[in-house]
User: Fold this.
Amino acid sequence: MASITTGPTREQEHRTGPGAIFDNEVTLGRMMVAPAVLLILLLVAYPFLRALWLSMTDLEVARAATGNFIGPENYVNLWDRSIFREKVFVNTLVYTLGAVPIKIVLGLILALVLNRKTIPFINLLRGIVLLPWVIPASLSILVWSWMFEPTYSVINQALVAINFPGAPYLWLGRPGLAFFSVMLVNVWRGMPFFAVIYLSALQNVPRALEEAAMIDGANVIQRFRYVTLPWIMPVIMVTSLFSIVQTSGEVQIVQVLTRGGPFNTTHVLGTYAYQQAMLSGKLGEGSAISLFLFPILLLVIILQLRYLQREV
Assistant:
């Protein structure tokens, strides 16, 4: 009896055809992530390693092209400098630990408000909320500098009109007020980002869980405490981590509004690194300043990632 010869199956054609290279899931996965890995290596890893190396040298502008390797001497010298230890370092910690929790709380409150569909023109309000974050930083900070102007600013004019005690204020000319002012602008710019992210998380909370809590007699606060908050907590942790890293490296707001003044009372690591590296030409020292908080930030990242792993 003659044997019947059949053609290749559809699966065999797929494996031997032009798409055979993509049949291996591991190979396909590596090809998909290769562009992202390449960008990270070029735009993150290399600049970081380069800055780390420069922080270990005494490189200065108009001197040797590479500088001499001096180890951790830049870090030791910085900590021995009172202006760095007592003002720059402390200001950065206060600025970060003060602004980030405020942005988290206000962003969450704003997200809860925007999550209510009964508010008129809710979609328009959600778009308006994003404006402080969308507007270019240089433009918005410049407007704030006009608002803080001591004589003709809208803030001082409003305070004078209501006979507020002590008005008008020298917002950017007094140490305490200047630090408060730059932190206020940071909160104003960062809060919309938190609000939009939290709004997205709130809309993904299962309605069944909230209804079950209502049937059990839980009030609004209890439903938020035991249902909503645990559900969105991973999102809060990720956004807080992002904000801590970004706020601790703040440059634009302080540089435009005060340039570290008055009397170095608003200098943070970013502005002080810019001053030493770009204006004074001490590239090695500037790199050390920019990386000074890296061990603390790395510890925070590790702790938060371990928390997220446990939650997942």
Observations:
- The two ends are 62 Å apart (CA to CA).
